[in-house]
Amino acid sequence: MKPQIDLEKCIGCGACVPVCPAEPKVLAMEETGAGPKSKAANPQNCIACNACVSACPVQAIKLVE
Ligand code: SF4
Ligand code: SF4
What we know:
Blueprint: E1 2-5, E2 27-32, E3 35-40, H1 51-55, E4 61-64
Antiparallel strand pairs: 1-4, 2-3
């Protein structure tokens, strides 16, 4: 599994990055034309713990195959 970010919903708060137990962390913030957004920088490290999904205040993350 790996996180998929809905960029329309993501408000760039960064809450999903530090909660990830993987090392290196799966998610990272990226500057985009629409402001900072979360992205799956290391998707292969995801252990599907759901912490990022729970941390997101706007339900922008879902886990996908
Ligand atoms: S589900 Fe867990 S391991 Fe996967 S990206 Fe989210 S916080 Fe990290
Ligand atoms: S927690 Fe949600 S809104 Fe905040 S940066 Fe991550 S995906 Fe975007």
